[in-house]
Each structure stands twice: as structure tokens, then as C-alpha cells.
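Exercise 7 asks you to align residues with C-alpha cells for two separate proteins.
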Amino acid sequence: MRIWILLTAIFLAVAGTWPIRSGGGASPTLNAADSPSVKTTPVPVDVSMHDFMEGVFQGPYRRLKASIAAEPKDNAGWKAIRSESLILAEGGNLLLLRKPEKDAEKWTEYSIASRDAGAEVFKAAKKKDYAAAKKAYQTMIVSCNACHKQFDGGKNQLAP
């Protein structure tokens, strides 16, 4: 029985259908689009910037705005601030994938500023430092509004 299994394994390896190939090379049935490096490269979904902003940022912004309106009284309140600020901070990284053709440097600047301010909200909430969280939140809103002013004609200004 062992010899049969060994012969089958050798046959499959030689035929190129065995899932593990000696030498660690890629399977010959993979094309460039299937390679791990191509699959893991971030590719933005093809949607309008309005749909992207509404879909990714609007919900977390509204929930964070409500959560940070007053100092949390319990761990659930702090967790809500941490969660929403982390989502918004990581959203800043997503913005870096969607640079416009015009004024890309300013877009990058605003995206990084929003991301970093969101991260500061998260860090302050982790320490349960309401004053620092609120200050970082306001900084984040200023960055968002500056970007909206330049890239959205001043529309969609956020209220802290």
C-alpha cells in the first residue's frame, strides 16, 4: 500500500497536478493575476468618491460624533469611541489609494492628517482620556473639512 501511495505522489508531482511542488515554485496553472503578490495588492473598488465617502466614512463619523458628545460613563462608551475612531483612522489609509489626478499632494496631506488624528482619538480613548480624545476628534474634523473644502467645493462640511 505504501508503494502505491508513493508512486501516486510521484506521478502527480511529475504531472504537475500535485499541490506541493519541490523547489517551492508556483503551480504552472497559476497566471499573473492569480499570484499571491497580485492578489494582495490593494485595488480600490470602482465607485464614485461620493459613494465611497458615504459608504466608508458616514456611519462611523455619525456614531463617533454621538459617542464623543459627552464623556463615556462605562467601558461600552469608551469601546464605541475606540472602534469608530479606528475605523475612521484606517479609512485615511484607504483614501491614500484614491488620489485624484489634480492636487494629489494636498489629498495625501489631508488623508494622513485625518488618519493620524483618528489614531490619536483611539489612543486617548484607550487611556480613557476624554479631553485628549475630544481634542483629537476636533482636529480630525478640521482635517476632513479642509479636504472637503478643496476637493468637494466646500460641500459636506462636518460639524464636531
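Second protein for Exercise 7:
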Amino acid sequence: MLNLILLGPPGAGKGSQAKSLAARYGIPQISTGDILRVAVRDKTPLGIKVRSFMDKGALVPDNLVVEIVAERLTRGDCKTGFILDGFPRNITQAEVVEKRQGNKHRGFA
């Protein structure tokens, strides 16, 4: 299992590197922006909550971001690993990931 986290400022090349690594290792690239937009588009329960913040131009709260990423990591394509592209974005998110990761062998749900 290969789990990677790519961190850096906007425009640093995280997405480009993630795409290359995802193709090389056959694991999904998980970008919070992408999965938030899909959840909103699909009108999932979390997506409905997220949309209320996005519509106001507000940041999506850490707890919702962590929840939606955790849900994404439960999907079958993450069985052999995943690449988190730009997540966690802050210390609060990192701390939640660290706490949850200690309890699971796959992802942090």
C-alpha cells in the first residue's frame, strides 16, 4: 500500500506531480477541491452542507473537509493506496488525520 501526501503552496506543482505518480503507481489522486465540487454537483448530504459555504464564498469548515476526504478514502480504488493532493491544508486537519489514521489501516475514516 502506498499512501502519499503532497503539500506546498498554490502553483508549486502538486497537481502535476500527483498526476504523474498516480499514473505510475495506479493509485488515485485525491484533490479536496475536486471531491468538494463533485459532492456539491451530486447533491450528497455532505455536498449540500458544503454548498452553503461555497455559495457565500466562505471557507468550508475543517470538519466537513475531513469528513468528505475520509468518505472518499473508503472507496475501492483506494485499496492499494492514494495520493492526497494538497490535503491536509492546516494543522487542525493534520491533527484529525493523525488521530484517525492511528485507528485504521486504510485511509483515516
